[in-house]
Amino acid sequence: MSGLPREVLKWLQSLDLTHSVKNTRRDFSNGYLVAEIFSWYYPQDIQMHSFVNGTSIERKMGNWQQLERFFQRHQLGIAKERVDGTIHCKPGAAIALVEQVYTLLTNRKVRKLEKTPNDFTDSSYQSQLPSYARSTASQAIKNNIAITELTTQPDRIVSMQKAQNIVDTHVEHRRQEREHNPERFGIRAGDSLSPRHATGGAEPKSVKDSKQQESQEHNTEGSSAVKEVEVSQPSKPAAP
Predict the structure, then answer these.
(1) pTM recorded for the entire structure
(2) pLDDT at 117 over 80
(3) Band of pLDDT at residue 226, cut at 50, 70 and 90
(4) How far is CA 42 from CA 59, 165, 178, in A?
C-alpha cells in the first residue's frame, strides 16, 4: 500500500511515470520519480539524463542535491527535514513530500482526516500498540535512526542529539503510561511515578533498609564507652 490519498494517486498515474508507485518510502527515496514529476512542469529546468535511478546512497544524494538546488532557485519551500526523511525512508516523510508537491503543482489541497506528523518517527504507530508490545529505548533508537543517516552525517554530536531526543520522547511516553495506568506498574497511591526521579512518596524498600542499617551502626558506635584498664606493676624484689 502506498499510503497516498486517492486524488494524489490518480494524479501520479496521469503523469505516466517510469514505474507505478507501490511502496512510497522506497519508490521516492532516490529522488528519481520526484525529478520525473517536476520535469513535466519544468521541462527546461529538469533534464532527466542528469538523474540516475539507483539505490546506493551516493546516487540518492546526487539526485537530491540537484533537486534541492532547483527547489531553492524556484523558492518552492520544501523543507530540508522532509527531503532528509524521504532519503532515509523515515515514516511519513515521503507521503508528506509528495502531498506538498501535489499542492504546489496543481494548486489543490489534499483532503485528509489526520494531520501528517513532522517528526517522521514511528511514535504514532507505537502509540497504537498495547503497552507490552511497544519498543524499548534502544529499539526506538534503532527504528528511528537509519544507517544511511550515520553515513551521510558523520558528525557524532548531531547523531547523539538525535538519539537523545528519541530517548527523551520514549521516557515521556513511559511517564504518561505510569500516570494513566498505575495499576499495571504496581504503583500505589502516594508512590512515585518514576523511580529514577522520585518526587515524593515512600522510599524503595532496599533504600530504607540500607538507611536503617547505617543508623543502627552509627548508634552502636556512639553508645559504646571506652573502659580504662589499670595494670598493676610487679613489685621489685628486696635487696639482699
Answers:
(1) 0.60
(2) no
(3) low
(4) 22, 39, 54
Separation of alpha carbons 164 and 161, rounded Å: 5
Question: How far apart are alpha carbons 11 and 166 in whole angstroms?
Answer: 36
CA-based torsion, 13, 37, 113, 84: positive or negative: positive
pLDDT for the residue numbered 119: 62
Distance CA 122, CA 140 (A): 8
DSSP category for residue 224:
P
Contact (CB, 8 A) for 137 and 174: no
Record the cell numbers describing residue 103, joined without a space: 499542492
Q: Which residues of 222-237 are buried (b: 16+ CB within 10 A; e: fewer)?
A: eeeeeeeeeeeeeeee
pLDDT, mean of residues 70-79? 92
Query: How far apart (Å, rounded) are the C-alpha atoms in residues 58 and 128?
Result: 36
- Which domains are delineated in the chain? 6-106 (1.10.418.10), 123-185 (no CATH)
As a whole number of angstroms, the distance between CA 84 and CA 90 comes to 8
**Distant-in-sequence, close-in-space partners of 82: CB < 8 Å, separation ≥ 6:** 93, 96, 97, 100, 120
Taking the C-alpha atoms of residue 31 and residue 54, their distance in angstroms, rounded to an integer, is: 9
